[in-house]
Design brief:
The chain has 83 residues and is mainly beta. It has one helix at residues 30-38, and strands at residues 2-8, 18-24, 42-51, 56-66, 70-75.
Length: 83
Amino acid sequence: MRFILTVIIPNGRMDKPIHQVFCEYPAQSLQEFVKILNSSDFIIVDELYWDANSKMYYVAGQTALNYRFVGKVKLLIDEYGKT
């Protein structure tokens, strides 16, 4: 499934510590993803980027996320209803 994560990543200036990560992970539901996210310090996801030309998301590589910095998780649903 595809998810949008709002993460708070401290930086030196602290002027813009909030970021969104678009990702894909083989979970069957939001509840399952949150349970997996909380079960380990890090989880590896496929990070997604938006291609304005094709109007589709594509995998831009893997990213390791630390659950301590995730403030919100929601399903990423595209214009065709795909998660």
